[in-house]
Amino acid sequence: MADFTTVNRFLDEARELLPAAVALRRRIHSKPELGLDLPLTTEAVLDKLRGLDVGIVRGKSTSGLVVSLSGAKPGSQNGRTILLRGDMDALLMTEETGLDFASEIPGRMHACGHDSHTAMLVQAVHLLHRHRDELPGTVKFMFQPGEEGHAGARHMIEDGLLDTDPKPDAAFALHIFPNFKAGAIAGRPGPLLAAVDTWTIRVKGRGGHASMPHLAVDPVPVACEIGVALHAMVTRRTNVFDPIVLTCGKISGGTASNIIPETVEMLGTLRTISEAARENAHQGLQRLATSIAAAHLCEAQVEIRRGYPVTVNDASFVDFARGVATELVGPDNYINMPAPVMGAEDFSYVLQRMPGCMMFLGVFPDGHADHDHVASCHSNRMILNEDAMAVGIAMHAAIAHRFLTESLRD
């Protein structure tokens, strides 16, 4: 019963801290920053941590921070350490939410909830700081830039920020999810999010006049045929239980309606949840593009840029975190996810180094009737239920407190 009381105490106190979290989230939301250098966001975090007895280490290659809170309980210096992570960067897109605190910077928007991640983590520092005399170990808070395609987590790892003593024994992160019930927690063991790679295919033919295609080698229909063949590969050459999601997001070529261009360029992404499927897809891309092009007297160059690896949740840690979540929000508000989400996350780099997991926090906004049709992450109309952030604050604190005071369950 003691643990149940502690978890619910954290939720009550998180609700007290919610106004501060909302204010910080809106401050960050209105001034979104991109990439690895986020001076305004970093300053906002530091501003709200002033006066707390914490250690702060800054990165060399990014504006990332690792904040350390050492427990005041006797023997804490010999206890375990857990890492809690929140990402801070925004997306290159124009906001169309109509919010009073909408982005003030054209072409930038917090459409993936990183503003809320940062705000929740700051208040989790405050919440655990209140109870540091109960902590027999250390909590590290990783405020990370550059998740949206810039591999900020990898940069922070390469800067050595995760290797400073005491090194973390485990890691945990929350990501908001507008399509889940507000205040619900969702997770699964094993693959949670996919690996993502970006591919480019350049089809080269021979340009000419549109009235005389027989005197040219037209790459446009060849590129179209390659696109159809790639999607057939996904459905006919892939194990349905080891999925591949392949998308061609852009095809470009040509300058005028009466000119057959010399080249066409195709750009897309590839998402997989196993290295075997990833390698098979890489080989298939190369084989189909070059073979189809050759069959039509064209040439095809294929370039594949490997992105984030699969985000793999440690099964034991998921079991542990599920126990905390069900005490915090009740068993009816914990969602066992039947399958991974095919988005990607650079928290995967952290989970390659230590056990841990990422879970989703439902933030379904008020005033919507259908969970399936509310604007999702990466939508220019994405909004979230700010009240649910109290659950996120409490979940961070409860995970850290429980991990430091108990052994993981078998």
List the keywords.
410 residues, alpha/beta, Aminopeptidase, Alpha-Beta Plaits, 8-stranded mixed β-sheet, 16 strands, elongated
Q: What portion of residues is helical?
A: 25-40%
CATH level-3 fold name of the largest domain: Aminopeptidase
User: What strand line-up does the widest sheet have?
Assistant: 1-2-4-3-5-16-6-15
Strand tally is 16
Order of helices and strands: HHEEEHEHEEEEEHEEEHEEHEHEH
The figure for the number of domains is: 2
**Gap between N and C termini:** 20 Å
- What oligomeric state do the depicted chains represent? single chain
**Coarse morphology:** elongated
Mean pLDDT: 95
Kindly provide the name of the CATH class of the largest domain.
Answer: Alpha Beta
> Measured on Cα atoms, how large is the radius of gyration?
24 Å
What is the makeup of the main sheet? 8 strands, mixed
Would you write up a description of this structure?
This protein is of the alpha/beta class. It has two domains: 286 residues, Zn peptidases (Aminopeptidase, 3-Layer(aba) Sandwich), CATH 3.40.630.10; 112 residues, Alpha-Beta Plaits (2-Layer Sandwich). The chain is 34% helix and 23% strand. It is built from nine helices and 16 strands. An eight-stranded mixed beta sheet has the order 1-2-4-3-5-16-6-15, sandwiched between helices. It has a four-stranded antiparallel beta sheet with strand order 10-12-8-13, with helices on one face. Helix 3 links the parallel strand 3 and strand 4. Helix 7 crosses helix 9. It is elongated and about 85 Å long. The model has no long low-confidence stretch (mean pLDDT 95).
